[in-house]
């Protein structure tokens, strides 16, 4: 299938880019290692530069779509933020290799591709900021907190997961995501909001209490 060939090329390039760097890998190497052909490569990608863009775009588009779905499918800002954080954290398991290449090789993105990625990242930040602002206005989140500082703190904290997360680590990605949710919501929610039964399952101590 066409999609399988495209995925095969991407997976091979991820391995090669991680090992040798973007400029250390040629299209010929990608074709040879992936067992495809130049015709197959150029059917899916105009160039190696476009391939690098697609790798970057995969996980950014994923978290952006997940955030948009969280916003339209939920009423409470707390629920929206919980879903956004969960999907944000799990992306480091789903697209770990993509993200490693992103941070390692992002400086080599061509300007036209870099602009697209920057815009999607800005859109993602705006969605998170909007949810926090909405939570403050509706009285779910603490009003004395800065939307920008809290928003960037969440993004920065979760982003750093790529540095230390390991698939075979002590905690699964789902457990790590639950810890992030617990930590962030405990810091962000008002005392009254924390008592809302709708949000109780988001706090780890409540889960432990209900299981004993």
Automatic annotation (TrEMBL):
Alphabetized Gene3D superfamilies for the sequence: Homeodomain-like (1.10.10.60), Tetracycline Repressor, domain 2 (1.10.357.10)
DNA-binding interval(s): 26-45
Name of this protein: TetR family transcriptional regulator
Lineage, broadest ranks: Bacteria, Bacillati, Bacillota, Bacilli, Bacillales
Source organism (scientific name): Peribacillus loiseleuriae
Keyword terms of this UniProt record: DNA-binding, Repressor
Domain HTH tetR-type, first and last residues per copy: 3-63
Keyword DNA-binding: yes
PANTHER family on file: ACREF/ENVCD OPERON REPRESSOR-RELATED (PTHR43479), ACREF_ENVCD OPERON REPRESSOR-RELATED (PTHR43479:SF11)
Single Gene Ontology MF annotation: DNA binding
């Amino acid at each position: 299938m066409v999609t399988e060939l495209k995925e095969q090329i991407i997976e091979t390039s991820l391995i090669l880019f991680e090992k040798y760097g973007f400029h250390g890998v040629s299209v010929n190497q990608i074709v040879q290692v992936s067992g495809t052909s130049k015709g197959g490569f150029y059917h899916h990608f105009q160039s190696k530069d476009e391939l690098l863009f697609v790798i970057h775009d995969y996980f950014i588009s994923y978290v952006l779509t997940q955030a948009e779905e969280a916003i339209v499918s939920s009423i409470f800002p707390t629920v929206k933020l919980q879903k956004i954080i969960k999907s944000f954290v799990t992306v480091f398991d789903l697209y770990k290799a993509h993200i490693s290449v992103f941070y390692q090789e992002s400086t080599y993105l061509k300007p036209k591709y870099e602009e697209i990625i920057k815009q999607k990242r800005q859109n993602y930040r705006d969605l998170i900021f909007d949810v926090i602002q909405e939570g403050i206005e509706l009285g779910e989140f603490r009003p004395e907190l800065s939307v920008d500082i809290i928003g960037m703190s969440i993004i920065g904290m979760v982003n750093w997961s790529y540095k230390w997360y390991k698939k075979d680590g002590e905690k699964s990605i789902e457990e790590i995501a639950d810890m992030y949710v617990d930590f962030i919501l405990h810091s962000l929610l008002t005392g009254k909001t924390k008592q809302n039964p709708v949000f109780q399952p988001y706090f780890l101590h409540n889960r432990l209490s209900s299981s004993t």
